[in-house]
Specification:
This protein is mainly α and about 180 residues long. It is about 50% helix and about 5% strand. The chain is built from six helices and three strands, in the order ααβααββαα. Strand 2 and strand 3 form a beta hairpin.
């Protein structure tokens, strides 16, 4: 027998594998914490899938790929390190730590600004551009597997993109050179 005084938000959520369309809280507003934690778990699962494919085939993580992707979309394939940090949502020291291994393997180089020696740029090398193109192919395959047409309709994907954007989930502009260059 069900306790009529029980909080529906403290009960375990419905198993999404058993019925992915099931509303775990019929007639009530879903618990925001539960929703946030589901989003965190989903993000971790998606990152794990990308990490596996990118690492296995290219020896890079999803974080490395994202950093390279931002550089690939920047004018001239380069960005000020401070702008790259802001775009990635990390600190300046975080971007420096992320760039170091990519510099060591020749995918990224460090450049000084022509007008101000205090300004440092991160730039894709020719090898970095080639490898990024290969990584993009892999990332698109992983994304296609994650959002397989037999499980996700175009409307589902559109709705999900809108909701993620509302939460601040933006992606690099897909047009090469879409960022603005500054010295």
């Amino acid at each position: 027998m069900t306790d009529p005084h029980a909080n529906p938000h403290t009960n375990p959520p419905a198993d999404p594998q058993a019925n992915p369309q099931a509303d775990p809280h019929p007639g009530t507003r879903p618990d925001p914490l539960d929703t946030a934690l589901r989003l965190v778990r989903a993000q971790a699962a998606v990152a794990k899938r990308f990490d596996a494919g990118l690492s296995r085939l290219h020896g890079v993580s999803l974080s490395d790929f994202t950093l390279l992707l931002h550089l690939g979309h920047a004018p001239g394939g380069r960005m000020r390190r401070v702008d790259l940090a802001e775009a990635l949502g990390v600190t300046a020291s975080g971007v420096t730590r992320g760039l170091a291994p990519l510099e060591r393997i020749g995918l990224v180089s460090r450049e000084a600004a022509a007008r101000d020696a205090r300004v440092a740029y991160a730039a894709l090398t020719p090898t970095g551009r080639e490898r990024l193109a290969e990584m993009l192919y892999t990332a698109r395959k992983v994304a296609a597997e994650l959002f397989a047409a037999d499980q996700w309709s175009p409307d589902d994907l559109d709705r999900l993109a809108v909701l993620l954007t509302r939460l601040g989930g933006t992606a690099p502009d897909p047009r090469p050179g879409a960022a603005t260059a500054r010295d």
